[in-house]
């Protein structure tokens, strides 16, 4: 019976877990139904809705903490987004995302939070609003060529602000930071017009690295209308995605900013030089793009690509040269160390070879003198008298000062060298180390044996103490244990001791 009850409980728990897992709500792909400069309309597919109701599904924009953890920038216009769950609409449950205001940003990234009774779900979405999906009215307005005109910007005497590009920079980020009055698209095209050589193939998505960009002011940023700027950015993005070179088409409203050095024609214009903004129509731009001018532009673009590749190669060569220089310096240091070591070894060998002949030369001094003295015959007393000539008597004079054997003492340098050799001898060091290890092991064994002996003595003392205690307890019997015992009378009679005899009287 108990086993049946356990089985029922296990089945109930499994069913509860399976039902909880069945209600694990999921978010699918996002379908965009609006374009740029329109209120956002998008649908996110809801997965595994099962029997959930619209009241149980609570979608919303994630909190700033969740945005920070996900590394997504929570922009201000995201607060206008509204999330509405639509369950089982046409057999498909979706999460409708809408906004009350038009979105002018081509890239929208947000974090969705969906809560239901069994859990919570977070997912981020990136929406690219394609500017090419314009209404016909906007496209027609953008297709009309603008009349050629020249806008003269006021001169304030201040220089243009600049920005040096890095490998991680994009023109969108630079324009977003440098915008002074126009939109990001207007600022991007103004930067491109001021710095045409900083882009490969004339495309805003192919920004060169290490270029110093001149940033436009407010007048230059707003010179091109917003709709035309968006159309131009969309056209360049499409050309970049297809991997082809971008060529300006009629009706795109592409304009150019005159960022060249002015005043080269005459000195009067040079004295009153100002920053001019020149608006050129599409037809004139197309006409300029044909013939030698177009070929020159194509050649300049190819030259720019070649220069960029050369710059990359040059940087790689410089990096390789720096690494080679580091390796060469390390090799030089090693070579110097080897030379010093060789010099030390040569010096030690020279000292050793010089000490050996010196000792060999000083050794036969005493035997030579002894042999010379032995070679001279001893003079008899009879012959000594007539031997008066001075030369013969003075013959042994050079041998008269007995030279003591010179023993060269070993200098302290030899002792120090020997000591150093002993210290640097790996075999000796190994023997010393092994001896130290063996000595340490012996000390450990002795300490362990002494400890074991102390433990044995301690146990022995404790055993003896226990034996003595048990014996004393056996002797210390209570008085009640002696009750009922009859003590027999003593069978031995003791006779009284005889009285001592009186002492004899003393003689009178």
From TrEMBL:
It holds the Pfam family FimV_N. Keywords: Coiled coil, Membrane, Signal, Transmembrane, Transmembrane helix. Residues 161-215 form the LysM domain. Residues 303-351 form a coiled coil. The chain crosses the membrane at residues 427-447. The keyword Signal applies. Residues 1-24 form the signal peptide. The keyword NAD does not apply. Residues 378-398 are annotated as: Disordered. This is Peptidoglycan-binding protein.
